[in-house]
Amino acid sequence: MDTETDCIQRHPGVPEACGLTTAEAAAIMAAGVGATGTHTGSNAEEYDDAHNANLPDWKRRCIQLYGDCQTQDWIGAKSCFACFERCQGQHIWPFNRCRPKDEQR
Questions:
Q1: Euclidean distance between the first and final Cα of the chain, in Å?
Q2: Could you tell me the superkingdom of the organism this chain comes from (predicted)?
Q3: Confidence of residue 20 (pLDDT cuts 50, 70, 90)
Q4: Nearest Cα to 62, choosing from 90, 24, 30?
Q5: Do the domain assignments include residue 10?
Q6: Does residue 47 lie within any of the structural domains?
């Protein structure tokens, strides 16, 4: 697991301890569930990024969130690719610019 996910799990209910908002922590954990295939539901698809196993965790997360942004029509995203590029530069997804529709800020 990556350090953000570890931090969120060590401080449940206190995402500020990890430098995250509640929405960012929820999205990171949701992405982790999608990546591991531990989510439930008949419409759920398992995300397999084994082909990216040699990449750093932050880059794998950027790639997965870019795909989620594209397929789930996230809000605040003029361009999912612009958010992906920012993620590559900062090593963290810009949830203030691109986030799931169900996230409230």
A1: 26
A2: Bacteria
A3: confident
A4: 90
A5: yes
A6: no
* DSSP letter assigned to residue 15: G
Within the chain, what is the greatest distance between any pair of CA atoms?
36
- φ/ψ bin of 19: left (φ > 0), alpha (ψ from -120 to 50), beta (otherwise): left
Q: Can you tell me the mean pLDDT for 59-83?
A: 87
Residues 76 and 44: their CA atoms lie apart, in Å, by: 24
Answer whether 65's CB lies under 8 Å from 89's CB. no
Amino acid at 72: Q
Domain range enclosing 59: 3-39+55-90
Token digits of residue 16: 């500020």
Look at the block and give the residue holding tokens 């612009």: 82
Q: Does any domain span residue 13?
A: yes
pLDDT at site 90: 95
**Is position 75 within any domain?**
yes
Show the CA angle centred on residue 58, arms to residues 64 and 80, nearest 5°.
45
CA distance 80 to 5: 23
